[in-house]
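FORM 7B: Structural annotation worksheet

SECTION A. Query
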Amino acid sequence: MKNKTLIIAEAGVNHNGSIPLAKKLIDAAVSAGVDYVKFQTFQAEKLASEHALKADYQRSNTQKKEETQLQMLKKLELTYEQHYELISYCKQKNIGFFSTAFDLESLEFLSSIGLKTVKIPSGEITDLPYLRKASSLFPRVILSTGMAKLQEIREAVQVFVSAGMKKENITILHCTTEYPTPMQEVNLKAMLHLQQEFGTPIGYSDHTIGIEVPIAAVALGATVIEKHFTLDRTMKGPDHKASLEPNELKAMTNAIRNIEVALGNGEKRISPTEEKNKTVARKSIVALKEIVVGELFSNDNLTVKRPGTGLSPMLWDSIIGTKAKRPYHPDELIEL
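SECTION B. Predicted structure
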């Protein structure tokens, strides 16, 4: 499909450090019909210091209040060997593998395994060395903009443009970095503002509960949708609670594909299937009562009723005042 939306199922760290669980997530993504399943590539020590605290939602969802962010991340880190295993499994299942890099070495690794597009997470939008490294390694980027002011987005985009990247290869995702995101803070129309401001493809990275917001984003023109998913929202871990379960992911994907078809080409025209209904739903000019030859047609002896197989009511003014050339019974179609 020409206007197909790229749907990225964000497994993220919902594998809880387990490769068998990661493979089950891949299976669920395949069953849902998405384009890519996305993980997160990082080395915990290069991502967070021992002084970094967990976010409120991370403390609540992991139920380990004293645990540092570094300690949490260490348990969720995937080795390079595990990446290769998951990539191989994705190829076996015929689904695209994708990942977000959170440090410079992870960017280099994802480039080395052949990824041509990299996802820039919201937290790295102000990380100039990271942005420069990404611009030197990848011909295309998907940039999340959670927590970012317009000027910060502008500066990040300029890094890529200055490196020679065409704007058509930069997809900017509107995003609200809160898990889950309250509906009143989604501000989905901001996605359109980003498109107007930067002239790039746009998309939406969703952290709300449910599937209606990403579906609405596609109707507004999103070319990429990213959505977290899990096998079970009740599992322990930072992102499970704000993720879709497999049946919901499939429902979202099906709805998006329906919306893509329903959007059409924007030209107002009669569709092939409704053409046959015109004569049923529209009306014609008919006799209201008995009309004799030579009688003048008037508002008193004519009316408008279905079916639409006779004279259009739009000809009413040209019929009124003319003479009947033959007699008519009530409800009979008037002829010129």
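SECTION C. Observations
Residues 272-319 form one domain. DSSP finds 14 helices and ten strands in the chain.

SECTION D. Sign-off
Analyst initials: ____
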